[in-house]
Design brief:
By secondary structure, this protein is α+β, with helices and mostly antiparallel strands. The protein has one domain: Immunoglobulin-like (Sandwich), CATH 2.60.40.1890. Helix content is 22%, strand content 43%. The chain is built from 3 helices and 10 strands. Strands 1, 2, 3, 4, 5, 6, 7, 8, 9 and 10 form a 10-stranded mixed β-sheet that branches. The longest helix has 18 residues. The chain is globular. It starts with a helix and ends with a helix.
């Protein structure tokens, strides 16, 4: 009987651990920085946040190798689109929030040359539950090298 109880307990424990899978973890992914082609103008940052087991708020994004970084969103007023700064962004439990062109995004001033040469900007995403997620965003230079997909398409055309 004790052996049967041990097997049953191990099975139940495994089921509970399986339920705490990857979908229950707060994470940041697909972060990119599109450098501005004009010196002095801000670059744009885009990424996706996947919510964890509880509702949280993204309260800040920092990058040591930049002069200034702000969260913004594009809104429409009287038929005119404009950008405005946002102090925080709600991330629902198990949900997805995308920072993308035409919506929420980062404005990044003064990306450092060392990050540009390395091809990544290390950012820290700070949440209301005191979680901090470090992520290296890929830097895209305007008019720079093509991605592998674009290069493959050109090779097929020729």
């Amino acid at each position: 009987m004790t052996k049967l109880f041990s097997i049953f307990s191990a099975t139940i424990a495994a089921l509970f651990l399986t339920a705490c899978g990857q979908g229950d973890v707060l994470l940041v992914e697909k972060a990119v920085v599109n450098l501005s082609p004009v010196d002095g103008n801000p670059s744009a940052g885009y990424f996706t946040v996947r919510g964890g087991p509880e509702d949280v708020t993204l309260v800040a994004v920092t990058a040591d190798d930049s002069m200034r970084l702000e969260m913004h969103e594009t809104v429409e007023e009287d038929g005119v689109s404009k950008m405005q700064a946002v102090e925080k962004v709600a991330i629902p439990a198990g949900g997805t929030v995308k920072f993308e062109p035409g919506g929420k995004h980062l404005m990044i001033w003064g990306v450092g040359n060392s990050s540009i040469q390395r091809g990544t900007l290390r950012m820290i995403f700070i949440f209301s539950n005191d979680d901090r997620i470090q992520f290296d965003a890929v830097i895209n230079k305007v008019g720079g090298a093509k991605t592998d997909d674009a290069a493959d398409a050109d090779a097929q055309d020729g």
